[in-house]
Amino acid sequence: MMLFALMLGWAVLYSDRTCLYPLLSVIAKDLSLTSAQAGSLTSAYFLTYVIMQIPAGLAGDRWGLKKVMMSMFVIAGFGMLGLGTLGNSYYLLLLFSALSGMGAGAYYPTCFGTLFQVVSPSKRAFSAATIGIGMALGMLIGMTMSGPIYNSLGSYKAPFLILTIPTLLMVVIFYKMLPSIKDPNTPNLGDYLALFRDMDLWKINFATFTSLYGFWVAMTWGPTFLKVERGLSLSQAGLFTGLLAITAIPAGLLWGRLSDRTNRKIVTILVFPLSAIMIFILSRVTSFPGIIITLMIYGMLSNSAIIPVMMAWMGDIVSIRYPGKMGAASGFFNCTVMTSAIIAPIISGYLRDITNSLVPAFWAASVIIVAGTLVTIITPLPRKTGK
Fold first, then answer.
1. In this structure, is the dihedral angle defined by the CA atoms of residues 151, 153, 156 and 160, taken in order, positive or negative?
2. Do residues 385 and 121 lie in contact, with contact meaning Cβ atoms separated by under 8 Å?
3. Cβ 124 vs Cβ 260: under 8 Å
4. What string of DSSP letters covers 309-359?
5. Do 81 and 26 meet the contact criterion of CB atoms below 8 Å apart?
6. CB–CB of 105/49 below 8 Å?
7. Which residues lie below 8 Å from residue 277, measured CB to CB, with a gap of 6+?
8. Contact assessment for residue 41 and residue 94, using Cβ atoms and an 8 Å cutoff
9. Helix axes 107-118, 124-153, angle to 10 degrees
């Protein structure tokens, strides 16, 4: 029941955030925005999302992960409601996108803080991958629903308004299905400072940041790239990009189980370079079959497919070195890695503005992922895990 509720929460949040991406070109045209301004709408969401990570983790460790999760989900719902009713201008869209991101920002540390305090180390990555199914499903729903709804109703606000309902309903589901997790020992400031200074955690965070940078380039600007530079319709562009989610589900379970039973480092060293290659190929392929195959292979190597392995690697270290601080550690991890979602859309939009193409943005993402691979190679595994 717990895994199902957490998976469903991710499905709703990913639907909320990704329904915007196919609409970026529509919103830019309707409101006469530059590509960088359109990209900043997603960056506003992730700016507040990232800012909330560590405070939410700290609050969850202190007052209870479930309480913090439920309270902030209400804020996320009101952000979606604002986008769907009042999002008539660039600045209002920025405001409500930021509000939605702030509410969603508590979910990662409270979700995985709860998970990693309940499941055993030998099941961490696989359990995280199971929850990741919700991320993949939500991504698929958000990417594929917004185009048809816009075409049917003629309003870019309609998808946001529709998604407000399941977002607020999740609060009831969390109340009924999640355990209350709160460590009896309140961590002090020195405990947290030691966690935040741990260089092994910083290496894992940086490597994951590079992987997610490529993912957010593909997700936020992929639909526009496919529509403008490859001639797909708005609905096709959203659907094709959403294909990432289909292969991410079985791949995430595979990588998770493999890393639980063998070695998390070997799995990441295998997956990261392959994802860099697929991002580069995506910038070159022009045929419909080629685009589909490239996106589906990339889905096996990015975000919800590989992040559970990196999260479990982090959890291995924290459970040994910093017990009772899993909420803060999860928030620290996601705060660091999700800065990619702030930076990637703006940099990619800027590269498009100066080159009139998104191809350089994909190339830059490939190079950044290679840098993350090199950092992964020098990151040690925690000795007590036996891996």
1. negative
2. yes
3. yes
4. HHHHHHHHHHHHHSTT-HHHHHHHHHHHHTHHHHHHHHHHHHHHHHHSSSH
5. no
6. yes
7. 366
8. yes
9. 150
For residue 247, give the nearest of 202, 207, 278 by alpha carbon: 278
Q: Where are the domains of the chain?
A: 2-172+197-385
Give the CA angle between residues 8, 13, 15 to the nearest 5°. 95
Residue 69 corresponds to which tokens in the numbers above?
Answer: 């999760």
Q: Please check whether residue 201 is in contact with residue 319, taking contact to mean a CB–CB distance below 8 angstroms.
A: no
- Calculate ∠ Cα 61-62-68, nearest 5°: 75
Rounded Cα distance between 233 and 313, Å, is 40
Report d(CA 384, CA 55) in Å as an integer: 29
In this structure, CATH architecture of domain 2-172+197-385? Up-down Bundle (1.20)
Q: How far apart are CA 235 and CA 180, in angstroms?
A: 41
Q: List all residues 6 or more positions away from 323 whose beta carbon is below 8 Å from its beta carbon.
A: none
From residue 369, how far is each of 153, 271, 278 by CA, in Å?
Answer: 39, 10, 11
pLDDT string in tens for the chain (387-residue length): 899 999 999 999 999 998 998 888 899 989 998 877 888 898 899 889 888 988 888 888 888 889 999 999 999 999 999 999 999 999 999 999 999 999 999 998 899 888 888 888 788 888 988 888 888 789 889 988 998 999 999 999 999 999 999 999 999 999 999 988 666 556 666 767 888 899 999 999 999 999 999 998 988 888 888 988 998 887 788 777 777 878 888 998 999 999 998 889 999 999 999 999 999 999 999 998 999 999 999 999 988 789 899 989 998 998 888 877 788 888 888 888 888 988 898 899 899 999 999 999 999 999 999 999 999 999 988 865 443
Residue 152 CB neighbour total at 10 angstroms: 9
Residues 6+ apart with CB under 8 A from 334: 50, 53, 108, 109
CA–CA gap between residue 11 and residue 170 (Å, rounded): 10
